[in-house]
Design a protein that fits this description.
Structural class: alpha+beta
Distance between the termini: 8 Å
Number of strands: 3
Strand content: 5-15%
Largest sheet: 3 strands, antiparallel
Order of helices and strands: EEEHH
Strand order of the largest sheet: 1-2-3
Helix content: 10-25%
């Protein structure tokens, strides 16, 4: 696909995503699911539930916040789509990341 998509991952009632910035502060941010301030919501995909207990899920989120600084954002190599895929792997969800969601990145 040639599309360019914004991706977020809903975890414990919040939608987490990776955003560009000029600082080395975390680019991992959250908002209410389906309510991004810039991107228009299109669809939700159920990726399954994490087998991790809630405290481990929170630790996963804390870890990704440390390793995804806003100034590391790259439109092709390190973006909201690659972040969503990495987060889903770290959360050990049931379903694989959908290849079509990578869009123009692939």
């Amino acid at each position: 696909g040639l599309g360019a998509f914004h991706c977020g991952v809903e975890v414990l009632g919040d939608e987490w995503f990776f955003a560009w910035g000029e600082t080395d502060y975390s680019g991992v941010v959250w908002n209410e699911p389906k309510c991004h301030q810039v991107h228009v919501f299109r669809e939700s995909l159920c990726m399954g539930e994490s087998a991790l207990p809630e405290d481990e899920i929170r630790m996963v989120i804390a870890r990704v916040m440390d390793v995804w600084p806003a100034n590391a954002y790259h439109p092709i190599h390190k973006n909201c789509v690659t972040f969503a895929e990495d987060l889903l792997v770290a959360l050990k969800v049931d379903q694989p990341f959908p290849a079509w969601a990578r869009g123009a990145v692939d």
